Amino acid sequence: xxxxxxxxxxxxxxxxxxxxxxxxxxxxxxxxxxxxxxxxxxxxxxxxxxxxxxxxxxxxxxxxxxxxxxxxxxxxxxxxxxxxxxxxxxxxxxxxxxxxxxxxxxxxxxxxxxxxxxxxxxxxxxxxxxxxxxxxxxxxxxxxxxxxxxxxxxxxxxxxxxxxxxxxxxxxxxxxxxxxxxxxxxxxxxxxxxxxxxxxxxxxxxxxxxxxxxxxxxxxxxxxxxx
Length: 227
Fold this sequence. Notes:
This protein is an alpha/beta fold and 227 residues long. The protein has two domains: 2-120, Rossmann fold (3-Layer(aba) Sandwich), CATH 3.40.50.2300; 126-221, Arc Repressor Mutant, subunit A (Orthogonal Bundle), CATH 1.10.10.10. It has helices spanning 10-22, 33-42, 59-68, 84-93, 105-118, 152-163, 171-179, 189-203, and strands at 2-6, 26-30, 47-51, 75-79, 97-100, 126-129, 132-135, 141-143, 146-148, 169-170, 213-215, 219-221.
C-alpha cells in the first residue's frame, strides 16, 4: 500500500516514513501543502497522513481541494494543537480520522491499519489466491500455511498484485505503486526484474507451477486458480 506523509517537521516525517516501511508499506514524504497536492494529482495513493500546520498551503486547505477534486483517498489528520475546532473542521472537510501530536508510533500504525480495513468496506484483512494468503494487518504472508519472509518492496509488489488478482498489471503501474516518484524507468527497470525474481523464488514458483505469471508485452497477473 502506498502512503503519502505530509509534514514540514522533517525529522518526524522521516520517522513516520521509516515506521511505515518497517511494516512493509511504501511511503513518500511531502513537506508542504502545495507539494502534497502536486503528488496527489500526479499519482494515486492508498492513504494520506496529513499535518494541519503546513507551509504554503495548510492541511485543511489541502484536504478541501482533494475532496473537491473527487480524490477519495482516506486521510489521517495530524495536529499539534489539542483543539476541538481543528478536529471538527478536518472531519467536516472529509478527514477519516485524526491524531494529536505527540503520539506513539504503535497508535499511528493502529490508526493506519484501521483506515485500510475501513476503506473499500473491507471486512476481511486477508487477501488470498489459492494457497497464498496475505494479511494486510499483521503484514504476514503464508503459502499453504508456511510463513514466508518478504522485504518491504516484495510485500508491496505482492500486495498490489493480489489486490488486482485476475487482472493484468503493467510493469509501469507496478513500479509507480511500489516506488512512486523515485522510479526512473530508464535506470531502474531491472529493479522490477530483481525483486520479482526473488519474490517468485520465495513463493516457490517453478516450471511446474507459478503463482505470479508473466504476460508478454503487458506485465504480471495472479489468478485465483494458480498453475
